[in-house]
Design goal:
mainly alpha; 9 helices; 0% strand; elongated; TetR/AcrR family transcriptional regulator; transcription regulation; transcription; DNA binding
Length: 200
């Protein structure tokens, strides 16, 4: 029996297991893809038994969906929350770009940008996992478009496309060539899009 000031221990443990396993699944997704995630691999990496994982999630697809949700939480904590300390419009766009580069150089995900990795993997696919990946990407693009509109962009969707393309390319080249200079190049090019608005 539980009371308001004594949470159910099983629920607390279940929530902790869910976060731990989802976090590890998100990490695996950036190096080997969401499709590579298995209960056995997660059990070995987290120390949680296979039965414990399946009790919390039920099946592999639920783990993959949770991995995408965990990635979304990480983006909010490491990029968006930091950037929202800046004023809307151009200052926030510059903060978003800087925070995005910082999160990659800090190695938050083992294999670079979660969004870039899973977008390529789940293109033209259907189902809950693909829906989660699309929602994550669309949320990022909408955020860019909103701040670009505030900054006075005459074509926010086009400018968001450019910024996202530069950052995604920078991530891909950094992972391929193991060179942070590629991220700095991407940052400068993305900042250039914002700078053009100030000069317009």
């Amino acid at each position: 029996m539980t009371t308001d000031d004594q949470p159910d221990g099983r629920r607390v443990r279940g929530d902790a297991t869910r976060r731990k396993v989802a976090h590890e699944a998100a990490m695996i997704a950036t190096t080997h893809g969401l499709d590579s995630i298995t209960v056995g691999t997660l059990a070995a990496a987290t120390g949680v038994s296979k039965s414990g994982i399946l009790t919390v999630f039920g099946n592999r697809e639920a783990i993959q969906v949770a991995a995408v949700a965990e990635a979304r939480n990480i983006y909010r904590e490491t990029i968006i929350a930091k950037a929202f300390e800046a004023a809307p419009g151009a200052p926030r766009l510059r903060a978003l770009i800087d925070a995005w580069v910082d999160y990659l150089t800090a190695g938050v995900f083992r294999g670079g940008c979660f969004m870039a990795a899973t977008t390529a993997e789940y293109g033209r696919r259907d189902g809950p996992v693909a829906d989660g990946v699309r929602k994550l990407k669309r949320g990022w693009l909408r955020l860019l478009e909103t701040e670009l509109a505030v900054a006075g962009s005459p074509a926010p969707a086009d400018d968001a496309f450019k910024i996202d393309a530069f950052l995604t390319a920078g991530n891909g080249r950094r992972e391929l060539f193991a060179d942070d200079a590629e991220l700095l190049r991407a940052r400068d090019l993305a900042m250039g899009v914002v700078g053009q608005l100030a000069r317009a």
